[in-house]
Structure formats: structure tokens, C-alpha cells
Amino acid sequence: xxxxxxxxxxxxxxxxxxxxxxxxxxxxxxxxxxxxxxxxxxxxxxxxxxxxxxxxxxxxxxxxxxxxxxxxxxxxxxxxxxxxxxxxxxxxxxxxxxxxxxxxxxxxxxxxxxxxxxxxxxxxxxxxxxxxxxxxxxxxxxxxxxxxxxxxxxxxxxxxxxxxxxxxxxxxxxxxxxxxxxxxxxxxxxxxxxxxxxxxxxxxxxxxxxxxxxxxxxxxxxxxxxxxxxxxxxxxxxxxxxxxxxxxxxxxxxxxxxxxxxxxxxxxxxxxxxxxxxxxxxxxxxxxxxxxxxxxxxxxxxxxxxxxxxxxxxxxxxxxxxxxxxxxxxxxxxxxxxxxxxxxxxxxxxxxxxxxxxxxxxxxxxxxxxxxxxxxxxxxxxxxxxxxxxxxxxxxxxxxxxxxxxxxxxxxxxxxxxxxxxxxxxxxxxxxxxxxxxxxxxxxxxxxxxxxxxxxxxxxxxxxxxxxxxxxxxxxxxxxxxxxxxxxxxxxxxxxxxxxxxxxxxxxxxxxxxxxxxx
Amino acid sequence: xxxxxxxxxxxxxxxxxxxxxxxxxxxxxxxxxxxxxxxxxxxxxxxxxxxxxxxxxxxxxxxxxxxxxxxxxxxxxxxxxxxxxxxxxxxxxxxxxxxxxxxxxxxxxxxxxxxxxxxxxxxxxxxxxxxxxxxxxxxxxxxxxxxxxxxxxxxxxxxxxxxxxxxxxxxxxxxxxxxxxxxxxxxxxxxxxxxxxxxxxxxxxxxxxxxxxxxxxxxxxxxxxxxxxxxxxxxxxxxxxxxxxxxxxxxxxxxxxxxxxxxxxxxxxxxxxxxxxxxxxxxxxxxxxxxxxxxxxxxxxxxxxxxxxxxxxxxxxxxxxxxxxxxxxxxxxxxxxxxxxxxxxxxxxxxxxxxxxxxxxxxxxxxxxxxxxxxxxxxxxxxxxxxxxxxxx
Lengths: 519, 393
Known about the structure:
Oligomer: heterodimer
Number of helices of chain A: 16
Strand content of chain B: 25-35%
Strand content of chain A: 5-15%
Largest sheet of chain B: 10 strands, mixed
Radius of gyration of chain B: 28 Å
Radius of gyration of chain A: 30 Å
Mean pLDDT of chain B: 84
Largest sheet of chain A: 5 strands, antiparallel
Largest interface: A-B, 33 and 33 residues
Mean pLDDT of chain A: 85
């Protein structure tokens, strides 16, 4: 063990070096890094070097051509197929350049003739690679140690569709897509103020994924923003393909089963959270963005809550909270009652249950486990199966969890009801990854209550509550409006006060000067 | 020294591992009982045989797992065993109650679970001689609930358990629901224990019996509530009939509703008056060394039937009816109090009323309440109003 420790120490300086490089990459767009190689004056050398780096990259399109009649092959255009708008490139770059008759190797003349809005001058190879990867075509000229990149990216993206994981009856139907720029535009569409800041960042050693940190300046706590950036800077990854990867790194308690960051694919949800002073993290290539800090209340908050009346929302939230309890404790309660506390059940019901359970050969725990595991398997299969065979699962599922299972003598009808209501209850939690936590915790509670009855059940609940109390999401207590009790925060928790009553921003906004919402 | 954090970690892991190891060894110790291993006792009774041995009897619900236990509700429960499942009545003999119960337990394949035991019936002889033992057992045994109803059988408790009712699943249900109806006396274990704390340990328990009736020549068994048994100092001191039990219920303010047929003075026929929402206020007074209890009864009266030729829409007739019903209630209360005074068992909780309103005087005489109680005067003020004379004249 001692040896391991020493090795770690030796590794440290290397890591620091890597980090430095990494930071340089992040600031790459603004150039002027000394560690990367400068572009040579000779086009031949430049061309050779780039083609070496991009050897075996069949999607790299290159074109050598001549500007003016004095010399041949003095310009070199390259881009990656499918990432750039080639038609536009032909029209606004190639055509004007080819029509130049006299060229004295001056950069100004070239720039003047190109009608592209976003034009950058690059001086290092590193920049060239970055711009190419981002889909910007590169033009390298002979005798000039500067490469030009044009903002002509055209990535293939999906159109904006309904967010499938958070469906609403009333409310906007736009969902985020896989393109970061479209996503930021969706936010900008809803918050048209220069105070909406979207900080950009590149992460991933190989993936070079664009990440945007969105927040409202003057509403968001600067300390929170600093902490977010701090934590993001510490993350070293080879690739960031989904925001879930970042989520695992950003959490305060990385071993907790409870999700401490909300992920949403709804721009309106994100904007609502930004207005409350939260920070959003958008990742290129995924429609799911992270919202932080997140508290336990997120388990019962749905996107629709703010567009419905406050009475119905309050009722629905209480219902969700109730079913949260059922989803967590339903089967455990059944097991505890059936194996320890038979005197608790009304006599008539117990006699009926006794009658139906008579032919079931398994103990209550096993019976419950059998059904719950089957249910989870069916759910998982339903998610993974291709749509064409999806209906088969539901038919088989209805047979497995239903009359057939009872007739086969495997389970009692009561158990079927318990499993079914637990299943429905777990789907009532508006956020999928929050629901998964509850579904997972159900199993240990079932085991404990089968050993210790209600004593175990209550013990498990106490342990969970203690854990929740100790959790923090970016410094905000996880159970915030409840414990510690915050009166103004309580207006948007298990109950939802009417919007005109919610005059204050949530507690974690930090700055006292901006506590009140603008009217 | 640098290994210390690792050692601490190992210690923690070892602790958790050892915890789980010990759990697995302790699996035999838990008091887990599957529902399939229980014999659900719905009612039990205690009797005495000729040699003064206790005969304990239990009524067990026998779940007959029907092959398709789905919607049909167990149509297999044939041979007149009721709609669902059937009952098994088993007896055991022993010198004490637990001995007798143990005797049953040795013969049943399952654990006798009495957490759902709704009714305990004391046989007449048992109640006469060993009421205290019965109550002690019921209160001490952890599975028996405080809400268990206590009955005294007309003769043998076994008869009641063996009785197969027509409507309910078993006789335990009948005995349980009987108390919720009408103005029947129902005493739970908790009520009995609380009442028994009074001077001379007064206890009142409902007597219940099965009687064979002949309806069109067919013998039919019927359940009958037959008044109440009065105990003092754990001895059966007498019985009062069903009608007189109303007096105790009224004074206890637990009178639900019932129908009184009333004769109106100077008219043939009767008026049947249902009285309900009855509220009773009991107060005490001590005047010139005389201990007086005043019972004020108020409530609503609804005319169910009128066989007189009087019009009930006349206020005069209504007043007549009210007068009659109040007279009736007064006589019931006075009669039942007189009877219990004769038996010298304060099941009316008069000592409680005096203790509440005249604590100093009561404390002086509480040790010889048996001298005071028979001499207490009872005054009854009836305030039953005819609330609804009906829609027709």
C-alpha cells in the first residue's frame, strides 16, 4: 500500500503539466499560446504537417488552388466533410478568391474579398485542428504565417421536438436538441436580456466537447458560479458525451444514491431555474442540461406546475409526495404487516388475504421480491426494446403481473395490487433519475422490514432522512425549505403559493440586495 | 504510521462484514411469522367442567385456498360453511387458562394467533367462579387486544362459538357487530378493566345466548342478547334483563337508539317512538347528608308508527307522547339503578360522578362505598322532544 502512495506522489507533477496544457486548449480560441507550434510561412510545410496529422482521415476534404496568375498552388483550403456548409463555401470563399487576378501575397486583400461574417485569424496548428473539428473551413496561404477560419459550420442536427422524458399537457412543447448552439438559442429566445450569460468551455481530452454555463448575471450568486467553474476545471476526462458524466463529478456527495443535480431537456424549466438564480450547464451533443443547485423538492416538481392553478398544483404535489412514500415503502409495508403485525389489518381483510395467500408457497419477502424484480425487468425491457416489439412486452407483462401469476399460485392478489400501485407510484415522480433512486432504495428497505418489521421500516426511513439531511447540493442543504426551515422557500415546495405571493427569490441566491423579485 | 488510515478503513469494513455475518446467524431468532403459519383465532371462550378444570375453546378461521381465488370469491366453500372459508372450533382442557390453551396448541399445526381475536366469551360457570382469572389472562397476554369484546354466555361459551350465523362469516362477527347496533351493551376488555377499578370492583357484562326457535316447524338457531350480568368483587351477584340494561347505557351516555311502543292515556292503540341522538348529563348533589344523582336525558324522538286515532300534527298529542316517553325513560333508569343498588355494584359509575363534583366528601366515604351506594337517590329529568311526527296525519 505504501508503494502505491509513493507512485501517486510521483505522478502529480505530470498531471499538473497536463492540466496546464488543458487550460491552454480551453483558451485556444484567443490564440497566443507559446507552447503550441506556430504556423510556418511555407505553405508546403504547413500542408505536409496538417496532412500528416490528418492521415487516414477520409472525411477531410482538401483543395489546393491558385490565387492570381503569378504563382501556382499558393492557397490551400480544407474542411471536414459534413461539418461545413460546402455550397456556401464555394460561393463566398472559393469563387471570389479564384476571381482575383493579381495577388501580392497580402492577407488584407484576401480578407477583403471574402464575404463571411465570422472570420478568424489563426497562428498555431493547435488552433487549426480545433477549428477544423468545430466544422470551420480553414484557408492557408503561401508566404503568410496566418491561417483563416470561416464560420461556416453546418452540423447535421435533429429538429426541435417534444421533450419525450418530460411531457406536459399545458406548456411549451419545445425540447432541447443535440446541438449546443440551438439549445442556447432556445434559452436566449426566452430570456432576451444581455444579463443572460453563456460562458463557453471545452472539455474532454479527445472529444473537445463544447460546454456552456448559463446563468443570469445579477441574480445568480457569484460564489456559486465560481464554485461551478472551479469544479468543472478540476474534471479531467477523455470524452464528455453526455451531461450525466459531468453530473457524477459535480455532485457534493458522489456516493449518494440521490441525484443532487437536476437534469432537464426542457428550455422552459431551465429558464425558470435561471430566473431563480440557479446555474445551467449545457453540453454539446445531448439534449439534457444540468441545473444546480437542486433540492429534494425537485422530486415533486413538474414542469407543468407553474402553468396550472396553484390549488391543483398543491394538490398534485401532495399526491406526488404521498406516492413517493408508497413507491419507497409500499412493498416493505406489506411485508412488515404480513410477517410481523398481522393484528394491524382489519379482520375481514386479513381473513381474505389469508385465504388468497394460502396456496402461495413463498414467504412474503420472496413473494414481494419476485414481483418487484419482475416489474423492474419488464420496465427495463420496455425501455430497451425496439418500438415494433414493444407491445409484446406489455402483453406479456400484463400476464406476468396479473391474473396468470395468481392462478399459477406464485403470488397472492394482494401482492399484485401492491406491486402495481408501487409501480404507478414510482412513475409519478416527474424526474426519471429521481424516480430511479426511489425505486432502488425500495429493495434494501424491503429486506430490513422483512427482518425487523415496522421497527426496521422506521429505522430505514430514519437512516434515509438522516442521509438527506446531511446532503448538500453546491452548499445548499438538500432538504432546504423543510430543514432548515425557510418560510419564503416553503411557498414553492410541497405547496405552491400563487405566483404573486412568491416575492422573494430562493434562499441560495446569496446576495441580500437582490432577494426580492422584480415586479 | 502511514498505514493508519488504511487500517482504520479495514476496521470499518470488517465491522460491517462481521455485522452481516452475525445477522445471517441470527435468522432463527427473529419473531417473523408468515401468515400461512398462523391459525387466525376469531373468538375464544372459557368454560368450567364438573371438576373445575378450564375448558378453553377457540374459533379458528380455516382459509380454504380455492383453486382460482380470483373474482368468484371462493364458490368452493360449500357444505353450509358460509360464503368464504369456514370455521373450526377446537377445545382444550387444563387446570389454568394458559394450560388449556396450550393443550389446544399441541393439537393444531399452526400457531394460535389471537391478534385478531374479536370476542372472548366467559361461560356462565366460569364467570361465576373465575372471572378474575379470565380478565387477568386476557389483559396480560400480549396478543389479545384491549378492544376485544367480553361476553358472558347464558350457559356454555362453546355453544356460541359453534353457532353458524346466516349473514355473517362466523359468530365472532355477530357478537362484534351486535354491540354497534341499537342500545346494546358492549364491553371491551379495556372498559371492563377500567370499570373494575371502582369501589367493590363493579363489572357489568352482556349475557348472550343461542336459542332454538321454530319458524314454520323448522328449527332455527337465533342469537339473543339476554340482558347483563352484574359482578361485584369478582363475583356474579345477579343479572338484569335487557330492558334494564338500557338504564345503565343511558346513564353512561352510550345509548344509541331504540324504539319504544307507548300507550297514550285514555286512548287505545300505541305510538311507536324511535328515540335517537340521546345525550345524558349526570350530576351529583349532597343535601342534608343525602346523596343525590340527577340524570338529565335529552334527545330526539321520531314517530315510526301510530295505531291510535290521534292526530300527531296536534301539539297537544305531541306533548302527550313526550310525557309518556320521558316517564318511560325515568322508570327504566330508576328500575335499573334500584336493581344494581340491590346487588350493591356501582356499574352506573356514580362514584365517578361524586368524585368529580364532590371530591372531598367522596374521599371520606370511598372506602365504604358499599354503604353509600344503595342509599343514593336518583332523579331523572327527561327532555326527549318529538322531532318528527311523520308525513301523514
